[in-house]
Write a structure and sequence with these properties.
22% strand
Length: 470
């Protein structure tokens, strides 16, 4: 097994050697650009600063950095968008930043798009819009394609088009041995299988992805907002609709509180549902009619949009500053007592200075996601009907006692809601507090993932607290 060298134990000569070998740039703590490149997206882990950052300019830089880190024994972590909820794209060793490898090459004739590992959702959508073809991807513009795909990847098109990983046709992976492997159904099919839902940071560093795309035109969007006291009726009506809705319909149902401090106690609580429909606004209005009559919203928006206008309307960034998230898959709707549990928890939230606040989100699952078997890819969560995420946020100025209270609040809410789940959790909402994570993230696919790990990374060079081991 490879053991990482402690930070600061490598001589300057070793770092100078790495810098000379790179096409890109090596940034050390004493360099001017370090504050920009060294901090993680989730500032909860801001103390975990790297001893050096390799800003990759070419795929060759990935191989150079891996071989150097392996020889010196320093811990290496790759970062695409840096949105690891558990802070696993941060390290005190060597950070391999792929953000400059962001080229997006659509092939209209083949109906595919080839994407470098550091491309973000925003850049991919911009390139595809010129061809009116789409890829099922997330709603956050700054999320990187690597982590999104390797962990599955879902968004408002997934019930119609499947997961991001389901559209993957080929990927190139640099292994711990420095080999650059093209993986698809025929070449290294086991590693290709693991790359569709097996999680990032486990088997190597992907440098390129090729996806199948789908023609898109016009869609309809909706947003419904309710008073807080109407949450039980709203959740019941929306979930009932999801169970019978066509694949063309997507939904995110959410409820929570905006940030508040002891000086600003008044709760700013809200309940809403929004989503996209591959059809017309008139047909969407008919589909939503039972919801509108069962739980009358205070605000209703149902409109026709182009696919690209809908993408902008639904766009939303992950929390800012500091946050923690837990998740659970549900085979059945969250019952009224579960809704009451989360409402009571929101009322009891200790508050924070972060305006993103705290609450839950319930995503409609199923549709095209369920058309792929749980063993066909590494992504095992195919039969669930909903994905539930609970979240809390805080800010730098909040004291340690308030931070601890927020984390206890999330753990207690997660335990209370877990009784409604099927024991599985979403690996892209990775949660350091989750104990039985192997079963929760990968289920029956974990033994096969462990076999892939033994084959391609037998020394466990790529590792973190919740990484797959052989």
């Amino acid at each position: 097994m490879v053991h990482a060298a402690p930070r600061g134990t490598l001589p300057d000569a070793a770092w100078d050697e790495l810098a000379r070998r790179l096409d890109g740039t090596l940034i050390r703590p004493e360099d001017g650009g370090y504050p920009e490149w060294g901090h993680p997206q989730n500032l909860r882990y801001d103390a975990r600063r790297p001893a050096g950052v390799v800003v990759c300019h070419t795929a060759r830089d990935v191989r150079t950095a891996i071989l150097w880190a392996r020889r010196t024994g320093i811990h290496l972590v790759a970062r695409s968008g840096g949105h690891s909820y558990g802070g696993y794209s941060a390290t005190r060793g060597l950070l391999l930043d792929l953000g400059q490898l962001n080229e997006v090459r659509p092939d209209r004739e083949a109906g595919t798009v080839t994407v470098e590992a550091g491309a973000r959702n925003s850049g991919i959508y911009t390139a595809l819009q010129q061809h009116d073809r789409a890829l099922s991807a997330g709603r956050c513009p700054t999320v990187g394609i690597s982590g999104l795909t390797l962990g599955g990847g879902f968004g408002f098109s997934s019930r119609a088009l499947g997961l991001t990983a389901d559209a993957l046709e080929r990927t190139t992976v640099v292994t711990a041995a420095g080999n650059s492997l093209v993986c698809d159904e025929k070449q290294h099919p086991d590693l290709f299988w693991a790359s569709r839902g097996g999680g990032g940071g486990n088997f190597g560093v992907s440098t390129e992805f090729t996806f199948r795309t789908t023609p898109v035109d016009r869609v309809a969007v909706y947003q419904l907002d309710w008073e807080w006291q109407d949450a039980p009726a709203a959740f019941a009506a929306v979930q009932a609709l999801v169970l019978r809705a066509p694949n063309a319909f997507s939904c995110r149902m959410g409820g929570g509180s905006a940030g508040r401090t002891p000086a600003r106690i008044a709760a700013q609580r809200s309940v809403s549902a929004l989503g996209q429909f591959f059809g017309t606004a008139d047909d969407l209005r008919d589909l939503l009619a039972p919801v509108l009559s069962a739980a009358r919203p205070q605000r209703v928006l149902i409109e026709d949009r182009t696919f690209w206008q809908a993408k902008d309307f639904l766009s939303h960034s992950v929390p800012s500053d500091r946050y923690a998230v837990s998740s659970a898959y549900l085979d059945h709707p969250l019952p009224e007592r579960g809704v009451a549990t989360f409402m009571d928890a929101v009322d009891a939230w200790p508050g924070s200075s972060n305006p993103d606040g705290a609450g839950i989100a319930l995503f409609a699952w199923g549709g095209a996601i369920a058309d792929v078997g749980p063993r066909e890819t590494a992504f095992v969560h195919r039969t669930a009907r909903f994905l539930l995420a609970a979240e809390t946020t805080w800010a730098r100025q909040d004291d340690a006692a308030l931070v601890a209270a927020n984390l206890r609040w999330l753990q207690e809410l997660s335990r209370a809601l877990a009784v409604y789940g099927n024991g599985q959790a979403y690996q892209n909402f990775i949660d350091p507090a989750l104990r039985d994570w192997r079963r929760a993230y990968y289920g029956a696919n974990y033994p096969r993932l462990a076999e892939v790990k033994r084959r391609y990374d037998p020394e466990n060079f790529f590792h973190f607290a919740q990484s797959i081991t052989g």
